[in-house]
Amino acid sequence: MLTEEQVLNALKTVQEPILNKSLVDLNAIKELKIKNNMVSLKLAIAQPGTAEQMQLQQEIVTAVKNVGAESVGLRFEKMADEEVAKHGGATQGEGKSLLDRQDKTTFIAVTSGKGGVGKSTVSVNLAVSLAREGKKVGIIDADIYGFSVPDMMGIEERPKVVGQKIYPVTRFDVQVISMGFFVEDNSPIIWRGPMLGKMLNNFFSEVEWDDLDYLILDLPPGTGDVALDVHSMLPSSKEIIVTTPHATAAFVAARAGAMAIKTEHEILGVVENMAYFESKVTGEKEYVFGKGGGQKLAEELNTEVLSQIPLGQPVIDEENFAPSIYDTDHPIGKLYMEMATKVIGKTKK
């Protein structure tokens, strides 16, 4: 049976990449749990969310597996500036990276188990609704392969680049950054995991964000590389799981929820999208994709259904074109405003 002493001895040989000292000597291991040879670690390092962290993750996993661990779960937090300075490291300037503002900004990852459930539609409308409530909001289109936020919000301009800094585009009072801004002619992207992590980190560190109350992350569906990077970069992130009423969609979405629970991310709730179709003529509701998936998923994840969003289409305004944004007087727009109010209440912003 693997012991804590064996794990700590293994980590004595692993150095913190910025301070160049052993993780054990730095007292960087804040939490260590072992269950059935599965190891869970929480570590404080000088600069989380960097390429150096990605390399450190591999070294830790290799070292711990070499002493008998079957799996290794990792979470990172930023080491206190006083500790960094004490060990000879330079502290990062205030606001240098959005990752340094986790005490000021609430990060909300919007995820789903599978594609085609309307996750991006929920992301952009939640972001806009929070802004309409007077909050300072940003959104990262982290769905690297299926970026769609700029098109959904009717954004035609590109971010401004000044020196080494990128300035996000603002639309409906929401600051927006997306891979779609940096790809020509809707070209396909063929990237591997480490490259995705680097691009996501750039969105946090190289973009000149204003002070934010909320940052919405529109994640790719499933539990792949980008979702894993977000879980390690943002240990305090909240999550919203999007599903349809169909039992299969809810079953698959449970995997994304299970990842959130495993990494101790707080699940704010479930959004059941395409919950029903309501006839404008009779007012009768037709449950096109079945019933109960959202509630069943919420019960499984021990959370609540934040909203049931029906099938619908925003009223298109040619002068202020945004094909997926609902106005506040639209019935579905009102549902998103109610959802934003719930989110604010749950996060006390």
TrEMBL record:
Claim: ATP-binding is one of the keywords in the record: yes
Positions with a binding annotation for ATP: 113-120
UniProt entry keywords in alphabetical sequence: ATP-binding, Hydrolase, Iron, Iron-sulfur, Metal-binding, Nucleotide-binding
The keyword Amino-acid biosynthesis is assigned to this record: no
Domain (MIP18 family-like) ranges: 4-69
Cited Pfam families: FeS_assembly_P, ParA
InterPro entries noted in UniProt: MIP18-like, Mrp-like_CS, Mrp/NBP35_ATP-bd, NUBPL-like, YlxH/NBP35
Recorded GO MF terms: ATP binding
PANTHER family noted in UniProt: IRON-SULFUR PROTEIN NUBPL
Membership in a protein family: Belongs to the Mrp/NBP35 ATP-binding proteins family. In the N-terminal section; belongs to the MIP18 family.
Subunit architecture: Homodimer.
Function, as annotated: Binds and transfers iron-sulfur (Fe-S) clusters to target apoproteins. Can hydrolyze ATP.
Protein name in UniProt: Iron-sulfur cluster carrier protein
Origin species: Evansella tamaricis
Taxon lineage: Bacteria, Bacillati, Bacillota, Bacilli, Bacillales
